[in-house]
Amino acid sequence: MPRLLNLDPVSRAQLQAGDLVFYNTLKRPFSHVGICIGHGRFVHASKSGAQVRLEPIRGAYWTLRFDRVRWIEPGS
Question: Which residue segment(s) compose the domain that 9 sits in?
Answer without folding.
Answer: 2-71
